[in-house]
Amino acid sequence: MLDKYIKDKADLISYSQQELSNIATTLSNLKNIINNDNDFKAPFLGGSYKRATMVKGISDVDVYFQYIGTGNSQSALAKLKGCLTASYPTSIIKQDKPSILADFNKIPINITPYKQDIFGNMSIPDNYLLNWQTINFGELETAITTLRQKNPQYIQLIKILKLWNYSNKKGLKNFDIEKRVCNLFLYSYSSSQSISDWIWTFLSNNGFQNDANKFFALMKNNYSDTTLKTEWLKFIENK
């Protein structure tokens, strides 16, 4: 029964098809706006949106635009912000490091410029906005695709762990959770097909032993169904 409650929660924090359609429309409009500027081209989607591991209220939609201007990374970000502010004057748009954070139609979007050299190597602004730092796009996407093929429920595991991390203020980056899940389950054999066993395995193998012990007690306690659901929600939402 615990696995059912876990999957129910994963479904609740996932975006619906209508919500995903709204996001796609917003991104299409965004691309049209930026593409009209001569300093940018070749946008692509990345992050949890592309990997289908987004969680409501926790994940941003990541979009990247190739910068072909002559300015430094700070100039690229300032130009991006100017384009967006002109088209969305009432939206919350702020420059962060190394991205522009914007909220369009209640959709949090993370917009990052990138440069590409003649060899295809990509780089994004560093945290000091002084230089461009090399980044490897696609490696995590490939790993998540392979993990999904192994068992689609690993995607639910990732979403639940993101909620646990956020609610309990564990401080992990969302992409780091995805990397850790891949490292733990992608190439190792797991005899269990239970998502609750996977949660315990993740916590135990990533230095969260106190949480692992609490979750193990939840797994083994002979609660009634109603009490089990209540205790599970307390654990995952830290309430």
Can you lay out the helices and strands and say which pair or pack?
Elements (H helix, E strand, L loop, with lengths): L1 H11 L4 H19 L4 E7 H5 L9 E7 L5 H15 L4 E4 L4 E5 L2 E10 L5 E4 L6 E4 L3 H12 L2 H15 L6 H12 L9 H11 L3 H12 L4 H13 L2
Parallel strand pairs: 2-5
Antiparallel strand pairs: 1-2, 3-4, 4-5, 5-6, 6-7
Helix pairs in contact: 1-6, 5-7, 6-7, 8-9
Q: Radius of gyration over alpha carbons? A: 20 Å
The proportion of residues in beta strands is 15-25%
What would the principal axes of the Cα set say about the shape? elongated
- The oligomeric state of the chains shown is single chain
Overall CATH class of the largest domain: Alpha Beta
Question: What is the CATH topology descriptor of the largest domain?
Answer: Beta Polymerase, domain 2
Instruction: Please estimate the helix content.
Output: 40-55%
Residue stretches low in confidence (pLDDT < 50, at least 5 long) are none
Number of strands: 7
Distance between the termini: 21 Å
SSE class: alpha+beta
What's the helix-strand series?
HHEHEHEEEEEHHHHHH
CATH superfamily of the largest domain: Beta Polymerase, domain 2
CATH architecture of the largest domain: 2-Layer Sandwich
Overall average pLDDT: 90
- What is the total domain count? 2
For the largest beta-sheet, the strand count, sense and barrel status come to:
7 strands, mixed
**Number of helical segments?**
10
